[in-house]
Design goal:
Layout lengths: L10 E7 L4 H10 L6 E8 L5 H8 L4 E3 L8 H14 L4 E4 L8 H6 L4 E5 L11 H8 L3 E8 L9 E8 L6 H24 L3 E4 L2 E4 L1 H6 L7
Helix pairs in contact: 1-6, 5-6
The structure holds glycinamide ribonucleotide (GAR).
Glycinamide ribonucleotide binds next to α1, β5 and α6.
Length: 222
């Protein structure tokens, strides 16, 4: 780094996954840029067979499974997760296809420091099978949302959204594929906003710095 250049400490991020890990891969790739405001310091999976674990290790990120099936209840699993995150000095948690519901204590402990990506334009289509839900509802626009995690499932202050058209002839798989392209683009942009200070929580909403608001148009194009 040139002498006199400003240095800003990168936010230490953990990514929690349950499966494939395409959003995790997009976050890891984005964080390789020198000027990205977050460093991916840890990947944890609740399923030892999660394919994303192999991809994280291949990218040189410390990654391991904490198998939820080996814990007697939700609270003890969450306590193990919490201990691992704290031991690694994690400041912000990104859920990327993490398909476990947390105990209220875990959500409270990470309140304001945990974000999630959900495959719908929240508050529409919470839960699972969001693409089938969108097709059944007959909406013409669908998409994805990055939001802060709160006790209510698939709710919480919204950081960023991307929309895609629903096309005649779409089935859940074709729609999911179109949304996933946007997810993989949206999540790194949203994490940059949160970790870089462009977006911050103010009560129940996310507020943006004027620089971030100007850049925001690029996040919403169809
Ligand atoms: C993504 O579509 C993500 O939005 C969804 O799981 C998929 C994980 O894919 N998450 C949820 O449904 C959470 N409610 P990935 O493993 O390839 O990132």
């Amino acid at each position: 780094m040139a002498s006199g250049a400003k240095t800003r400490t990168k936010t230490r991020v953990a990514i929690l996954i349950s499966g494939r890990g395409s959003n995790m891969v997009s976050l890891i790739a984005a964080a390789e840029a020198a000027d990205y405001p977050a460093a991916i310091a840890l990947v944890l999976a609740n399923r030892p067979e999660a394919p994303g674990l192999v991809l994280a290790k291949a990218a040189g990120i410390p990654a391991r499974a904490i198998d939820h099936k080996t814990f007697p209840d939700r609270e003890t699993f969450d306590a193990a997760l919490d201990a691992e995150l704290r031991a690694a000095g994690i400041e912000l948690v990104c859920l990327a296809g993490f398909m476990r519901i947390f105990s209220s204590g875990f959500v409270a402990a990470w309140a304001g420091r945990m974000i999630n990506i959900h495959p719908s334009l929240l508050p529409l289509f919470k839960g699972t099978h969001t693409h089938a839900q969108a097709l059944a509802a007959g909406v013409r626009l669908h998409g994805c949302t990055v939001h802060y995690v709160v006790p209510e499932l698939d709710a919480g202050p919204i950081v960023a959204q991307a929309a895609v058209p629903v096309r005649p002839g779409d089935d859940p798989a074709s729609l999911a594929a179109r949304v996933l392209v946007q997810e993989n683009r949206l999540y790194p942009a949203a994490l940059a906003l949160v970790a870089g200070g462009g977006a911050r929580l103010e009560g129940e909403r996310v507020v943006f710095t004027s620089d971030a608001a100007q850049a925001d148009g690029a996040l919403r194009s169809l």
